[in-house]
TrEMBL record:
Gene source species: Mucilaginibacter pedocola
Protein name as it appears in the record: Sodium:solute symporter
Pfam families the UniProt entry points to: SSF
Membrane topology: Multi-pass membrane protein
Subcellular location: Membrane
């Protein structure tokens, strides 16, 4: 367990974030000239690109990433870093092709966008799926990872610790709204990155450098841990083609069509800020491989050389074979590699990831519940009632997320469990957004039926593969399963669009690109801040990085 000084640093950090969140939200809401609902849910649409980029990163990088990416680094090396770097390409898609429609249509939620492009039924379904995914993916998994960390560091019961942290986060999120969320997320991103850098430097120093680690991997025939592009038949189940085919399905849903993420963009001051913000986040996404995944790889090398004691993580499987439960590898590194006094900063970084993820998800849930559910049945509802409904929804969602923790804890790898669920949720949503934005003939009824049938297919495949693991479906890697489900949804929607012809409304007529190049006609800012220049620069950097770690 960590010392008293480090514990005090961690507790003070939580209290400071609570105070900043409450002060920021209440002060700015009192001074906003716009409607109370717009101020609460979208920060009065006043966010600029640095804050959007930092908030996007903070909402994405949670305690799950700090814990699970270190775990994946220990188990499979740099492989899962592909998820972080592939995200940059989908953020470019968000900036170039999706942002203009979101800003131009003036929507408050992404289900609202689907109603304007398709119909009301599509909006209702996406609202339901978005709330459910926010509860499971953004809150429950974060709480699970946070609970594992806090139990190891403080010796406190997992559920007790996460409830305390989550309640504190819920308080400033519910009271302060999106502005409080974004401001605290910006602070937490800096703290989180600082903590991750400290861990990376400590692990690197303990190992004696990169060459020493490579030598250890070579001695144990584990040089493939340095590769991100694995061959066919790789034991990880993630060969290079599975990443290239499957990740875009997950990534477009997560970065371009998930309310929890895109809400930061919807609060942008104007289109240029909304476009540059995601690109800024794309550049920041380069860092996780080096500061989240790499420490886990160093931990593996340190373990092999006897410089890291994993006795506390060793268990015995059903066959009596000793194995390492690598879920707790990051917290063990904090205890053994970080000097006293600095460990408190690392714990603060972990708490930053946990709190920012929960706050972002709760704010998005409250927005969806207010605009897409409550307002439908109470169209005359005042702003005050909308905000109140959102707060109640956030509270209920928080309770549900806690109840799901024992079920999700059954996954051996938190990161793989998270992406396994996303792989079965994302395909129909990615399909209707892509075809809706790029294909004129995508009809309302085709989108509605694709969402229904595609979601049912995803749930059915997920249940069957888990209950019948020995079946053919049980052996399909989740990334390839996402791609197969996506192909099914595309074929389904295209066929249905020819059966049920599109009938555009005045709103939907302007919510698809006549050609892919139409989105680039906006000149953007002059100089290095131009979104076209930044997009091209980011593409070149990412291609070079993948080539180096191929």
């Amino acid at each position: 367990m960590i010392g008293s000084v480090d514990a005090i640093v961690s507790i003070l950090y939580v209290l400071v974030i609570l105070a900043i969140g409450l002060y920021t939200g209440l002060r700015h809401r009192a001074g906003d000239k716009g409607s109370e609902a717009s101020s609460y849910f979208l920060a009065g649409k006043s966010l600029k690109w640095p804050m959007i980029g930092l908030a996007l990163f903070a909402t994405n990088i949670s305690c799950v990433h700090l814990v699970s990416l270190a775990q994946s680094g220990f188990d499979t090396g740099l492989l899962n870093g592909t998820f972080e770097w592939m995200a940059s390409f989908t953020l470019i898609l968000l900036a170039l092709f999706f942002v203009p429609f979101y800003i131009k249509s003036g929507v408050s939620t992404l289900p609202d966008f689907l109603e304007k492009r398709y119909n009301r039924a599509s909006r209702d379904w996406l609202a339901f799926i978005s709330i459910l995914s926010a509860i499971i993916i953004h809150i429950s998994f974060s709480l699970l990872a946070g609970g594992i960390v806090l139990q190891t560091l403080f010796g406190v019961n997992m559920y007790t610790s996460v409830i305390i942290i989550a309640i504190i986060t819920t308080i400033y999120t519910v009271i302060g709204g999106l502005r409080a969320v974004v401001v605290t997320e910006s602070i937490q991103t800096v703290v989180l990155l600082a903590g991750a850098v400290i861990m990376s430097v400590a692990a690197y120093h303990k190992m004696g450098g990169w060459d020493d680690m490579v030598q250890v991997l070579q001695q144990h025939n584990e040089l493939n841990k340095l590769s991100m592009m694995r061959p066919h038949g790789d034991a990880s189940g993630l060969p290079w083609y599975a990443v290239l085919l499957g990740y875009p399905v997950l990534g477009i849903w997560y970065w371009c069509a998930d309310q929890t993420i895109v809400q930061r963009v919807l609060g942008a001051k104007d289109e240029n800020h909304a476009r540059v913000g995601p690109l800024f986040c794309g550049f920041i996404k380069i860092l996780p491989v080096f500061i989240f995944v790499m420490p886990g790889l160093f931990a593996y090398a340190l373990y092999q050389t006897g410089h890291l004691d994993l006795a506390g993580l060793k268990t015995v499987d059903a066959a009596g074979k000793e194995m390492v439960n690598s879920k707790g590898i990051y917290t063990l590194m904090i205890l053994q590699l970080i000097p006293k006094g600095l460990a408190g900063v690392l714990v603060a970084a972990l708490l930053s990831g946990l709190m920012s993820q929960i706050s972002g998800a709760l704010n998005s849930i409250s927005t969806l519940a207010s605009y897409d559910i409550y307002k439908r049945y109470k169209p005359e509802a005042s702003d005050a009632k909308l905000v109140r409904a959102g707060k109640i929804a956030a509270g209920i969602s928080f309770v549900i997320s806690l109840l799901l923790l024992p079920l999700l804890n059954n996954y051996e790898s938190i990161f793989n469990g998270l992406n396994d669920i996303i792989a079965h949720i994302a395909p129909p949503i990615t399909c209707v957004f892509l075809l809706g934005v790029f294909w004129k003939r995508a009809s309302a009824l085709s989108a509605q039926l694709t969402l229904y049938i595609g979601s049912a297919a995803g749930v059915g495949v997920f249940i069957y593969s888990k209950t019948m693991p020995a079946s053919a479906l049980g052996h399909v890697p989740f990334m390839m399963m996402a791609f197969y489900l996506f192909l099914f949804c595309v074929l389904l929607q295209v066929a249905l669009s020819y059966i049920y012809k599109v009938q555009h409304t005045p709103q939907s007529e302007v919510l698809y690109w006549k050609s892919p190049f139409e989105s680039l006609r906006s000149p953007g800012w002059a100089g290095f801040g131009n979104y076209k220049f930044l997009s091209m620069l980011l593409i070149l950097i990412m291609v070079a990085l993948f080539w180096v770690f191929r």
